[in-house]
Amino acid sequence: QVRLVESGGGLVQPGASLTLSCTSSAPIFGFDSVGWYRQAPGKKREMVAQIIKFRMPEYADNVQGRFTISRSATQNTMTLQMNSLKPEDTAVYFCGVKGATESWGQGTQVTVSS
After folding, report:
1. Which of 111, 66, 62 is closest to 91 using CA atoms?
2. Per-residue pLDDT averaged across 32-56, rounded?
3. Which of 12, 31, 66, 68 is most buried, most CB within 10 Å of its CB?
4. 58-66: average pLDDT
């Protein structure tokens, strides 16, 4: 079972930046796909950014140009750089990986509020 541990959430004002990190117990480049997802209260979990195998990253329309997903083989981490945050970005953010099995982190709260 792959263990994923997220960090970096918090409370920020609109327009601020935040970086989320996800550390994997298995090689981060060994999965078929890696990604960040979020779930706001009363809403379904949605894909925010993902990398499928070695393709270019894919982003949800509402974060395109503001968020950047990346991976580090040396640290076995996946990072989500979030810029120009908006109140509608408020949600619990999860990192997830898919390979032979699917694994999820515990989630980290991101709150964007003035």
Report:
1. 111
2. 96
3. 31
4. 97
